[in-house]
Amino acid sequence: MANPFLLQLSTMPLSSLLLPPSRQFWPDCAQQVIAAMQPDGNFADASRSSELDFSALRVIVPAYEHASLLIRAMAQQLNGNFIPPRINTLSAWLALQIPAADAKAAVSESERLMALYAQLREHGWLKKLFSARKNTDLLPLAQTLLTLSDELTQAMLPLVVNETGLNKNLAQAEQVWHQALASLPMPVQQVLSDEAQLVWQIWTSQLDGQDAISLRFQKMLRLAEHAPDPLLWLNPVVPDGLEQQFLTAYAKKQAVQVISLDWRATKLANVFSTAWQEVVEKEDEPPAADALVISAPLNNIRTLAADSLEQEAQLGAQTILDWLQQGKTSIALIAQDRVVARRIRALLERAQVHVSDETGWKLSTTRAAAALAAWFDVVVTRADTVMLLDLLKSPYFEPESMAAFDEKTSWVMAIEMALLRANVVGGWDSIIYALGKTPECAGLLDNLKSTAGNYTQHKSLTEWLTLTQQTLREFGISASWQQDAAGQQVAQLLEKLREDCSQLSDTFSFAEWRVFINLQLESTALQGAKHDQRVLMLPLNGARLRSFDAVLMAGCDAAHLPSQPKEVLFFTNAVRRECGLITHEQRQRQQLRDFAELLSANSDVVLSWQSQQRGEENPVSPWLERLNLCLQRAGLTRLETQQVQLSTQSLPTIIPQQPKPAAASLQPANLSASGYNSFLACPYQFFATRMLGLSSIDTLSDMPEKRDYGGWLHAILKTYHDSLKAQPELYPAAKQEALLREISQTMFTNVLQKSPAALGYSIRWEKVIPAYVAWSQRYAESGWQFEIGEVWLERSLEWADGQITLRGQIDRMDVNQQGEHAVLDYKTTPIGALNKKLKQAEDQQLPFYGLLAATDEVTISSAHYVALEMTGEKLADASAANYAVWQQELQQAIIQNVTAIGQGAALPAQGISQVCQYCEVRGLCRKGAW
């Protein structure tokens, strides 16, 4: 039977078969394979014992997925059992060949990269040429140069290889190279002469017979010389130069047939060939008149414009769910916009729909790789607190030294709270000192510090790998990785690097080692599980020669379709064209062909994009615009719009009400001045923070805050007054200012070493020192003397049916000659604000301290706020009026309020706006919603 698809191309000395891009590709391909193995076929073999035995035929496919498609199509054609052809990819077939006796081992990509980098970093002019600030900036450059070198090898290798192998006569290749550079304007040639010379030297140095491409090509030529079986070459794209030379050599020994896609206008839907004329191959004869009549696509192609990324993801996920409910079992998600595709995947997995992933997400994006990166960050930053906490919280960090704790969360929380309370922003010694009250945690950090100390000096890659793997074992990360698919792949990558780089003797710094590992993780694809393939995520070129029940393509806007390639160094299209490299136009043409094939080979396709981005219109892909324009010019309707109805769930309506909890069982046993002020400001705030014990976690800040300033002044003044009290004869009035300055300088010297940003506070206090000394002397002359500072006190307040413990720390207590006592509280607030606070009695701190300090022997007769901010040229204090009465009123109020709490009184959220503005439990009371 004559084959209607058979076409002999004059430009290719091989038997070639072109099949239209459609769902019928594999049935037609299977029919051709079956026909070719018949007695009168191209590949007939009289030695076959059965007409259902196709094992004499070798079939080369682009990927393993295509092998199952071909076998399935042949089974449908034959309707029974048969022995299939030997199907393989070219790389796998070459790997099965017995190496030649004199075959050289290919240099690994990682070894090539670091060997080249070791040479580049020795030349200072390279850093200047490429604006590299440090050596590690040259590592991505080395990777780029190797990529260009491999492209040149792919294009020019046939010029420097003969029958005996690699021919070092590069005259012909060099001529092509200079012709390519001559295509650039003369000023550009002069500017880029150094770059061009660098690329040429690197390419010729890499072409030593041990690079992977050269060795692979030599294997291909040896295989073609042997040519064991008739060959069917199946690929949607035209063979490149190396493949074409292999097929030509193979055809001298055995029958070879190439099956590819037919891109003639007569074999495509005329709407596609008209809208996208660049995908069409030119024909010798013009198409018939009826072929010029444009008709709508036969398959169902719909568009879906979303207002945002989240809406596109939601509508896309719902579309896939609808298809699954309709019984579709093979659905493709084309990830043209990878961000949207990942969001769709997350939404589907939330709906218990697994998505098999073929897009090749980077290994660096996994949590397993993040654990290794977190440790490197800790080493680089010398234990920055945020970086350290990231490492400790990693699910893979499980050091044996912390096994004594019941749960990991307990010791991680203990470390975090200690560092937050001390506001330690980093530094091994500071962190270990802050953990002094938890010896086990301090010991862990001491071990980490000791391990980090090994990451110094220059080491070979093997030594760096040994140290890193040993560290991962000590931290329990290696063991944790074995329980995770991504972790296993990261561990395998490190082990493979050990094998690949064992022969490299150059040494590298830790910074270079870190960048190298990051590049390896970034260039390695994560191999995801494929136990459920109803929904498959893949790139556009991954859909070649594959058909699905339905296809959703996310990211069909102008920014993503077509994807925009970037020019590398001076390799413009002109240079690429002259060198025989793939140009941007060729890449875009192939991408458009992939898109046209996707639409032709699938009966149900939805194309989605974001029509709005950041409040502005986001244009759709020009390819879709051209298709719609072609339809409109032919008098046809545009592509239909996909209608998606999001699933809804009705929830019961609960009208928010003002919270008024009652918790008699949580009646507080202790009370502080700040706690009682919180109760007065908002009973609900007191309930949440003091009775339930809820509080927001402090945040680290490398900028000192006002509370830090207050803490420093409290410490300075305590030391100052303790010194005056201990040895008054050494510090007469004339020397008191010098003493305070000396103490202040000692304090701020230590503070500035840890936080240079505190310099402003230091200067601010220096201006206040003379005024404070003058005020202190005036106050002493009035009969009051310093007695004690920063004293922590507790006192039990009892009544008929209850009691509560008052507690707090008083800044300062003074005594006069009559034995009366006064409490003083330092404030870094202007005196005017303090007088207003006392006048309105809005702060109960001073009377609370009076109750706290009062005993049978001690009576607190007065209280003062001391302003540590100057008013004019002086400091002043604000005295509490009717202090004894205020204390009695406060005591009665405390008893009444605590008793009411114990009796189940409501604790409503009733704070005023000034209180709610900075309230840390605003999210609990939900004020504003009721």
Automatic annotation (TrEMBL):
Highest taxon above the source species: Bacteria
Pfam families: PDDEXK_1 (PF12705)
InterPro entries according to UniProt: P-loop_NTPase, PDDEXK-like_dom_sf, PDDEXK_AddAB-type, Restrct_endonuc-II-like
UniProt domain PD-(D/E)XK endonuclease-like: residue ranges: 671-926
Name of the protein in question: PD-(D/E)XK nuclease superfamily
